Amino acid sequence: MAHGLSNSDMKKELFDDQTTLDDKLDKLAEWIKESKHFIVFTGAGVSTSTGIPDFRSGMDTVLPTGPGAWELRDNNTSRSKKAVVINDMHKAIPSPTHMALVELQRRKILKCLVSQNCDGLHLRSGMNPKCLAELHGNMNLESCSKCDAKYLRDYDAATGRLDHYTGRKCDKPECRGQLKDSIINFGENLPKEEIEKAFRHAENADLCLVLGSSLTVTPAADVPLRVARRNQKLVIGNLQRTPLYTMATVNIHAFSDTIMQGLMERLGIPIPPWIVRRRVRVTRESTSDNKNYEILIEGRDPDNTNIPFTLFKSIQVDSEGKTIKQMNREPFIFEISKKNAEPINIQFHFFGHYNEIPFNLNYTNISDIPQEDEFYLFYNPMIGQWRKTKNPDDFPL
């Protein structure tokens, strides 16, 4: 069973004064500019500003989310009603830290992000999964126990079961294997692909920045340790001291958002706003009697079209002045007569974590639906509007 920090000195939160912080950030910015292989290692501290509590912050923490989950358990107490905590992690909006890391990755400055977090925010923020190693799993990801196919969900796929089985099955007709969530419980082995990716980048890294991690959980914490043992630069950004404190080139005591906002200013790179990213695939096939078309609507990972993504709570199809199909579960398939010459409206209803309004996909008639069509939907939650585009970088302002 996991516990909070037992050493009182390790629980103490430290804050650099402004002059000291400025000097450290100046130095870090220069190191990043000079770096050939820059990696970042994140822990729960990068998500506390989104309203998600961490695990090991002490009872007297300054964090609005309050003490860590394991600290509360060790002290046999509950979280204060005054704590600023989000009730549903799917409603959490990625922090400036999340979005700064996305932009550094997009510019190919950040080579790999290694994360201990399972809240899904790094993927949700737009981090390319090719540059992400999620060592402790992702609450939105499940995989087939038979063929290893991956499935993303816009809901919590984690079951809390020791065997990890979710009760769902692989979509592939030739497989239909049992799906398992991807969460790594204490005492379980880390996913081979993810840990190998993390250590491969640690072997190549000349600079590693740790953000919001106590670095007390192994083997995950061995990733930045590997960088330090190779005598490369290790910078740790955390309010508390960590076991690698003396091995770090620099220790920065500040909130993760403070560090990343100051760093991006020094790099001259703006932090992009967060946008909800969706990819949709629509396919049309003739039925066996050749009288109708069968239309299939699927969500797909915006960064990997081979990974299905459960995006829709329901889909409604209207034509000829009436609703011809209402679908409340996957697969979203409907048939329509080839003789139908009326306009067709397909209305997508989302899970609404960010109050997404329905999106209307309109076709002038059945022949207007392509045999295969794939496009992106981007939603700006600040203005409540969707943008449909073929360009994966055509984000709304």
TrEMBL record:
The active site is at H136 (proton acceptor). This is protein acetyllysine N-acetyltransferase. One of its GO terms (cellular component) is nucleus. It comes from the Eukaryota. Its EC number is 2.3.1.286. The lineage of its organism: Eukaryota, Metazoa, Spiralia, Gnathifera, Rotifera. One of its GO terms (molecular function) is metal ion binding. Belongs to the sirtuin family. Class IV subfamily. Residues 18-270 form the Deacetylase sirtuin-type domain. Keywords: Metal-binding, NAD, Transferase, Zinc. One of its GO terms (biological process) is negative regulation of transcription by RNA polymerase II. PANTHER family: NAD-DEPENDENT PROTEIN DEACYLASE SIRTUIN-5, MITOCHONDRIAL-RELATED (PTHR11085), NAD-DEPENDENT PROTEIN DEACYLASE SIRTUIN-6 (PTHR11085:SF12). Zn(2+) binds at C144, C147, C170, C175.
